[in-house]
Amino acid sequence: MRFEEVARASIAIGETRSRLEKIERLAACLRGLRPDEVRVAVAYLSGELPQGSIGIGWAALRDLPPAASSTLTMGLLDVDATLSRIASMSGSGSQAARRLELTDLFGRATERERRFLLALLTGELRQGAQAGVMIEALAKAAGVPASDVRRAHMLSGDLGAVAEAALAQGAAGLARFRLSVLTPLQPMLAQSAAGVPEAFARIRPAAVEWKLDGARIQVHRLGEEVRVFTRNLADVTERLPEVVESARELPAEGIILDGETIALRAGGRPHPFQVTMGRFGSRVSVEEVRAMVPLSPFFFDCLHVDGDDLIDLPATERFAVLSDRVPERLRVSRLVTDDSAEADRFLDSALDRGHEGVMVKSLSAPYEA
């Protein structure tokens, strides 16, 4: 597929407010891809680079050559190969080499391709095609239920791999995705409510949990190996040794836990959120900052234990396993009730301790991203 076609699709998607129209246009583009183009196209149309950061900032994008004539010669994979070369450059002279590659790339691009490239490289692709829209478009293009695509994406955390499987093999390809310890999965997210009464109007009885002002973590342990992932599935194991140590103390050979980690003062009240997030920086000495700002993990869900996947079980059963395998000092405070007034008092206790508020969870819900 020509890069121009992907750029045209992106611009067309951004020009409509209709979610259904976005899905239709995305699906049409996806149907036209060769198998080896799927992963790259899905990343680009989701506003992401497969290479991650490629070391290009605004300064490097100034004074680029004018748009090429409409020869439409750039292939999608040719563009991606150029970006991969740029990402791999390091050391003396790399800045100049990146500039040369970038100048050549933009010199061959049409005006439409330039607009798309600039938005992609600066992280400012605003077209309304987030993961939810892309999942629905993949389902439409592949002729499979959106729920199958959504589940495969949750289990793998890799939308490109899911797209390849869906478009090549349909439902059979998606069915091969499984929960795997040490491989992160997409986290379950919450919806907001104005207060406890509104939440209880939707869910009752419910589990009410303190909402900590910390950083979401997903902890995997297999034997002595532990991996810690962020909400965005970044591996931060080396930055959080105290979380690793806590995981190794648990009575399980294999376990996946969902929770948060937070920096607490001596009296148990939380530090500001920025203090917790400072522990995730790559330029800090882990041991030095750990001594100054130790982190405490708190878990609220168990997704797997010793060979048993729990994500399809109702929350109340997952909570029971969590209580069995994780000591109370490492669990988020929880109240199970059908009394809105009691839940409000529990909210007050969370706020009094300096936390954000509460989460209200269905006791019967499976774990779904």
Task: Describe this structure as you would to a colleague.
The chain has helices spanning 3-14, 19-31, 38-45, 76-88, 94-107, 111-121, 131-142, 146-156, 159-174, 196-202, 241-248, 273-278, 286-292, 315-325, 340-352; strands at residues 206-211, 215-222, 225-230, 254-263, 295-305, 308-309, 334-337, 357-362. With 369 residues, it is of the alpha+beta class. It folds into 2 domains: 3-174, DNA ligase i, domain 1 (Orthogonal Bundle), CATH 1.10.3260.10; 196-362, 2-Layer Sandwich (D-amino Acid Aminotransferase, Chain A, domain 1), CATH 3.30.470. The strands form 2 sheets. It has a 5-stranded antiparallel sheet. A 3-stranded antiparallel sheet has the order 7-1-8, covered by helices on one side. A hairpin with a 2-residue loop joins strand 5 (295-305) and strand 6 (308-309). Helix 1 (3-14) runs antiparallel to helix 2, helix 1 crosses helix 6 (111-121) and helix 2 crosses helix 7. The longest helix is centred in the middle third of the chain and has 16 residues, at 159-174. The radius of gyration is 23 Å and the shape is globular. The two termini are 32 Å apart. The mean pLDDT is 93.
- Might you state the CATH topology name of the largest domain? DNA ligase i, domain 1
User: Which percent range describes the beta-strand content?
Assistant: 5-15%
Largest sheet: spatial strand order: 3-2-4-5-6
Biggest pleated sheet:
5 strands, antiparallel
What is the arithmetic mean of pLDDT?
A: 93
The level 1 CATH classification of the largest domain is: Mainly Alpha
Terminal Cα separation, in Å?
32 Å
* Rg calculated over all Cα atoms: 23 Å
